[in-house]
Structure formats: structure tokens, C-alpha cells
Design brief:
Elements (H helix, E strand, L loop, with lengths): L1 H18 L2 H10 L7 H20 L9 H19 L6 H14 L4 H9 L1 H19 L7 H34 L8
Helix pairs in contact: 1-4, 1-8, 2-4, 3-4, 3-5, 3-6, 3-7
Length: 188
């Protein structure tokens, strides 16, 4: 039963990721505006996806563990081009795309660079969300931001809640074990 649930979660997450940014891209195209979409958030998200994908590829993880990342990166690049198009200058996207392409190679120049970047991925991802929130708070206008895209993104993260709960419970059990551990006194 648990194996079937895990398979469902894996495949449903992959399916959701395959279409994750499509509602956002559609919303921007329909509005003919990228109002409310944070460029900083998008760039940070792209960086995080790129680091994760590079790490998984470099260390030979099975493709099913990272298959959604090339799809997400492609969707984010399309969204990035839409943001620049509707802000009036697609050519401004070129330096950002060049940095992303160069980063693919720079990440593996030294093992520590890739390992450090991977360790920072959670912070990069969180910064991406905060950048989007900051943009929304500052403008008080969601503009062309897709609630469906953010809801789908929340779904893909919800699966991880199980692991966070298990982590917290395991730490609690460990602390309780240590608290009630009897001290052994050696007799000489």
C-alpha cells in the first residue's frame, strides 16, 4: 500500500511539474503583461532548478529523481522571455540566459562549488518565494500572477511534508531517549 502511494506521489508530482508553469505563461500571454511577476523570483527559481539538475546529473542519480527539472527550466525560460517581451525588451534576457548557461559549466569546475551550491538550494528557493511575496506586497497587485501555478507548486511541496513530520518526530524520539537515558556508574 505504501509503495503504491509513493509511486502515485512520484508520478503525480512529475505530471504536475510537466505543466506547472503553463498556467502562469498563459496568464501572462492573456494579459499581455507580466505585471506582478517578480523577475528576481523567477531568476532565483531558475538558479535553484539549474543547481539541483546539475548536481543530480553530475553525481549520476537516476533520471526519475530529477526528470521534472529540465521541464521546469524550459518553462521558466519561456516565462522569462515573456516577462522581458512584455516589459518591452527581449534582448535584456540574453545576459541572464548567458549566465545560466555558463553556470551549468562553472558549477562542476570544482567539487566544492557544486556541493556548496546544492547546500544553498533551499535558501535560494526560499528567497525566490520571498522575492515574489515582496513584489506582491510592494505593488499590492497580483496582476498576471497565476494562482493555479502557485497552487500546483504547493502540491508538489506537500508531499515533502511527510518527511518534515517524520524528521520532527524522529528528533523528538531521540531527545526523549536521551532525556530518559540512565547514567551508568562504573564501580571499581
Amino acid at each position: 500500500m505504501e509503495a503504491a502511494l509513493l509511486r502515485f506521489c512520484n508520478w503525480s508530482t512529475l505530471a504536475v511539474c510537466a505543466a506547472l508553469k503553463l498556467p502562469q505563461i498563459s496568464a501572462v500571454l492573456a494579459a499581455r503583461s507580466a505585471r506582478g511577476v517578480s523577475l528576481s523570483s523567477l531568476l532565483l527559481e531558475l538558479a535553484g532548478f539549474l543547481v539541483f539538475l546539475r548536481y543530480q546529473c553530475h553525481y549520476g542519480y537516476p533520471p526519475l529523481t530529477y526528470l521534472e527539472y529540465p521541464i521546469l527550466i524550459a518553462q521558466d525560460v519561456i516565462l522569462l522571455l515573456c516577462v522581458f517581451h512584455f516589459s518591452g525588451n527581449v534582448k535584456q534576457a540574453a545576459p541572464y540566459l548567458a549566465v545560466l548557461v555558463c553556470s551549468w559549466f562553472i558549477l562542476t569546475l570544482q567539487k566544492w562549488i557544486l556541493d556548496l551550491a546544492m547546500n544553498l538550494c533551499t535558501f535560494i528557493s526560499a528567497a525566490s518565494k520571498f522575492a515574489q511575496l515582496q513584489c506582491l506586497w510592494k505593488t499590492r497587485d497580483s496582476g498576471a500572477v497565476s494562482a493555479l501555478t502557485w497552487s500546483l507548486s504547493a502540491y508538489t511541496c506537500a508531499i515533502l511534508i511527510r518527511f518534515v513530520i517524520m524528521l520532527a518526530l524522529n528528533i523528538w524520539v531521540t531527545a526523549t531517549v536521551l532525556r530518559y537515558r540512565k547514567t551508568v556508574i562504573k564501580t571499581e
